[in-house]
Amino acid sequence: MYSASYQDKSILKWFSVVCGLILLSIVPSVVFASTDGSGGASGAATNIPLIFLWIAVILMLAKASSLIERVGQPAVLGELLVGVAAGSLYLVGLDFFEPVKTSEIIHFLAELGVVILLFQIGMESSVKSMMKVGIPAFIVACIGVILPFVAIYFLAPYIIGGLSANAYLFLGATLTATSVGITARVLKDLGRSDTTESRIIIGAAVIDDVLGLIILAVVSAMVMQGSVSAGDVLIIVFKAAVFLVGGLLIGAWLAPRFGRGFSKINTGVGMKFALIISFGLVFSYIASLVGLAPIVGAFAAGLVLTPVYFEQFSNPPFVDDLHEMMKKEKLSSSVTKKIDSLIETHSHRHMVEFVEHLGHFFIPIFFILTGIQVKIAALWDFKVLVMAGIITIIAVVTKVAAGVAAGKGVKKLTVGIGMIPRGEVGLIFANMGKGLGVMDDTVFSAMVVVIMLTTLVTPPLLAMALKRS
Amino acid sequence: MYSASYQDKSILKWFSVVCGLILLSIVPSVVFASTDGSGGASGAATNIPLIFLWIAVILMLAKASSLIERVGQPAVLGELLVGVAAGSLYLVGLDFFEPVKTSEIIHFLAELGVVILLFQIGMESSVKSMMKVGIPAFIVACIGVILPFVAIYFLAPYIIGGLSANAYLFLGATLTATSVGITARVLKDLGRSDTTESRIIIGAAVIDDVLGLIILAVVSAMVMQGSVSAGDVLIIVFKAAVFLVGGLLIGAWLAPRFGRGFSKINTGVGMKFALIISFGLVFSYIASLVGLAPIVGAFAAGLVLTPVYFEQFSNPPFVDDLHEMMKKEKLSSSVTKKIDSLIETHSHRHMVEFVEHLGHFFIPIFFILTGIQVKIAALWDFKVLVMAGIITIIAVVTKVAAGVAAGKGVKKLTVGIGMIPRGEVGLIFANMGKGLGVMDDTVFSAMVVVIMLTTLVTPPLLAMALKRS
């Protein structure tokens, strides 16, 4: 389209325009700071229109940050970095993003975003292809949970002295679970969702989320009750197993029946979409009831829906128009067949596309918010920095080591690196540890920094590992 | 597909299945009531997975309620009625929906829903076609604001005695603004969005929202300060005018430039969607800054985007596949042209489709929630019922009378009926009146019932008027 140099110049130009426009969109909130936008239907105290502005700014920041792809990095790294920058603006006196950090509504949208991401990834995976990598994924997950847990439990006393035994348990537990969200986005951004390595990584990440959340349930019961019986542990494990196996079996049986049933009420596109999204949301909810992360439920729901086409429902209007045209034009049967097969492929795509469209709205909120929440200020304490650095190294090394279990003929380093990022689940652990009083502010900040570092370090490492192979 | 009677039987069967499933999805929340689903990334107190369940139930209720279309009523009436039923379940001891009524997050999603609805309607309208009905719409709006305001201000003292002069001002003001949301949904459901009458109704509803919100600003200034100067009124009117005229002109100039600019960063579908939705959200925000309802801003943003195609961005994958097939198959030029023109039509559709997909998620939340918030209990007081009844009649008659101004060759009754429903803006007035202490609980309940009655009465009346013509 353009020569490279022209394009680069125009990028610079447009990047400055983007930044300018974002600043411009922030100005009114400063100028009119005293004006209270008319509230919502509820007349609640929340300034709803201001949250609309936040979302718009977050979406445009996310999209502007995709410039990072020009230097070969996955877009998610751009979103995280832009988030960190936005979250640090208060240091230079701009506090536009301060209320975003504590907004319950933005946190909800972010959580819904990561649920939709995992739902979408589930829809693009299938139980069959997951089963193929089941054994290596399970081994990688187990080692990847045990190694960091044990290493940090035993080494942390030498790095951060003077804490209680429970605190070290919590530190170890915090770093067990790989963030499926981050890794999945990186693999998706790099167009590698469909390799054996990716399936092992995603499979292992889902399994270690499950393992991690079981550990969380056990460890927090220990902290709260002082001890925990083998029976309690068994109940937790049992509930999780019932959900996963039961959910996949019952879901696979129910989904097509639901589709046929509801199509008798109404065959509109809206009905199809309501069914799909409700399926994902209900699974997420049930997962949380048995003590698992909602994202695990969303992923399972996506897996269940993969082979379901909901063919009873209306086509997208484009398809109807094409059909009509084909009838009128009396095309040759070979062309008709080709178009029909395209339509069939996209009939499933149409379902995924709806979830993708929701994702375009919700997912960037999760990643920008994750970045925004990093407290750069915590990094200015040299002690915290060293602590975080050493723990990060342990966290990285132990997960890379787990990659060795990936089996023959698989790029072990890629798998290991793919397991590095900790995210949502780690943050849940850290928050809970802080809430239970076993982590003080310094340890908490250090752990958040570790989680961020594992996340920031993965995309370039993974991109390198994938390119090398 | 099926014979009518078979279909009806199967509807009954499936309706019971739907109800059963919804109840089933509620059961876990009762059984596991003590289990706290693991929180979000923020560790906030909100039970985020429970909100996922609420959304799923709301979406499925909304879709199940579309059965009402079988008896010729628009789907929105079904959503409102199902909402009223859901909101009254506490009367029989089922309190699943009680926390929904006060959830800030659900209110936010509902408000975003009505914003997306108006954005979508704006995208499907155009400034040109709105201008054509500009004069009659403006006259209908003015009369439709003045008549109910004056009638209720002077008649209300005879219906509800003993209130302050300010209270009667507030009662009158509450019933000035037609709810664009409800009317637009009814017209859309009945497939009549594109008639002259519809354009007059929507145009007048937008104008009287603007007028209504100006009155709100003026009346609340009067209540709070005791009086209001002509200068204050002028400033309020001036800000609104600047926003609408300025917004449309500047927006129309900016939108295609933004599109070209951002397409240099990234031509992905995600970028296009982020641009579109951010445009709508920023307009909503700016509208709230100048004291207008966010929905007015969203509608204006939609109007601005109508002629913008963002043709620089990637096509949907389906289109790319079609192009490739067309190249391979070497179709006749007439067929190629036909397919190309279909693609061009759907290139704009693709943009609207994204907003529609978001709408499938958000819009039902608004209408179900509106229904849920109706307090059936307030209707059991005979005095309240009579008061509400009389005020409703005044509210209906004055708006129908305003329809006479629609001009020659237009179905005046249709226009008048289309103006009846009061909604979001009326509820904002009522809430503010309650907050300022000029409406007590009884008057407030009566006004909410009036707003609901105008809303419930419109769909069947409008459907009748449209069928008659």
Provide a descriptive summary of the structure in words:
The first copy, chain A, has 469 residues and is mainly α. The first copy, chain A, has two domains: 4-33 and 42-106; 110-468, Na+/H+ antiporter like fold, CATH 1.20.1530. In chain A, 75% of the residues lie in helices and 0% in strands. Chain A is built from 19 helices and no strands. The longest helix of chain A has 40 residues, at 333-372. Mean pLDDT of chain A is 77; it is low at 1-8 and 27-44. The interface between A and B is large, with 110 and 110 residues.
Short structural description:
The structure is a homodimer of 469-residue chains. The first copy, chain A, is an all-alpha fold and 469 residues long. Helix content of chain A is 75%, strand content 0%.
